[in-house]
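Q: I'm a student working through a structural biology exercise. My instructor gave each of us a protein and asked us to get a predicted structure, then write a short paragraph describing it. Mine is Uracil-DNA glycosylase. I'm not confident about reading structure output yet, so if you can add a plain explanation after the tokens, that would really help. Here is the sequence I was given:
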Amino acid sequence: MQLSLPESWHLHLKSEMQQPYFLQLKAFVEDAYNTSTCFPPEDEIFKAFEMCAFNAVKVVIIGQDPYHNFDQANGLCFSVSDKMPHPPSLVNIFKELEADLGIPYPQSGNLERWAEQGVFLLNATLTVRAHEAGSHQKQGWETFTDAVIKTISEEQDKVIFLLWGGFAKKKAKLIDETKHTILTSGHPSPLSANRGYWFGNSHFSQVNTLLKAQGKSPISW
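A: Happy to help. First, here is the predicted structure for Uracil-DNA glycosylase. I'll explain a few features afterward.
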């Protein structure tokens, strides 16, 4: 198993990947994939990094854990593979997108189209055992992805961070708000959305307004 980042990210994170905790994490992930069914597929663990080069990052969306059922997780937070039913949180993301920007509800829940435009779709934990939510938490992934967020904050300028829900909001402490923009709201999960904490946040239009003000091309959501 090759747990290796694309070159654009490796340049900034190679020292992190030499830390003892990451070597232990790598051994854990290799054993997990060899002895049980895990998601996403092995070649998609670092897909968020592969689809959005370090210097191309304009927007960061932070999720928590990959989907844990067959054919769902594809290495991008909130995203599912083509032709898969949309999980409830993704349904609410698309509903808000439709209300905010008038974009028709999409057929595919695959968010690769966002990643290709500079939206970095990062889960805090990058792998999971089949049908066991959170099963790969506290093995080192969170330490690594916190370092990723901090590196973006330190080495980039004017990135827009979307922190949805209590877990993601805790990552604000890793981000320099004098250089970057943080937009927060409730989580798009039905529990949060139905309590009024998600719908109406207008994050998608706000992102595009901010990007245009920076002289960057808006995201075609």
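A: Here are two points you could use in your paragraph. The mean pLDDT is 96. The beta strands are 38-39, 59-63, 119-123, 128-129, 160-164, 181-185. It's a good idea to check both against the output above yourself.
Q: Great, thank you!
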